[in-house]
TrEMBL record:
PANTHER family: CYSTEINE PROTEASE FAMILY C1-RELATED. Keywords: Disulfide bond, Hydrolase, Protease, Thiol protease. It comes from the Eukaryota. One of its GO terms (biological process) is proteolysis. Belongs to the peptidase C1 family. This is Peptidase C1A papain C-terminal domain-containing protein. The keyword Protease applies. GO terms for molecular function: cysteine-type peptidase activity.
Amino acid sequence: MNTAFEYTLKASGIMREEDYPYTATDRGRCKFDKSKIVAKVANFSVVSLDEDQIAANLVKNGPLAVGINSVFMQTYIGGVSCPFICSKHLDHGVLLVGYGSAGYSPIQLKDKPYWIIKNSWGENWGENGYYKICKGSNVCGVDSLVSTVVALNTKSQ
């Protein structure tokens, strides 16, 4: 994640998601267009790994960048994902946008607190592009690498 933030500092900003959508193709070919920059990264920092602190930071500052092991995300269709066995090896970056206190988990057959994550795989994946994962035990490493970014708008969106 830090490498991505460092790139945005070096590239002088980021484009809108609509202008540079995830396509799962064109590996190795960057299509960054400086004329479409809408925000600049002023700074970034790692957030505490404590879930209460993560939630407080989310409420205070807005969405947070997180690393996650995405193996169970690939078959997600809805509900709260609470995999019993999931590696904490982080292989995907997503956006932590919220949390809830009582979402139904088909695997656990009961209500569980959860994080709400916005994925980059488009609106046809998951719940309109979002993923709910159990909160409380660093499931799939979701609490292992949490970062916040200070961004500056450069033009109206």
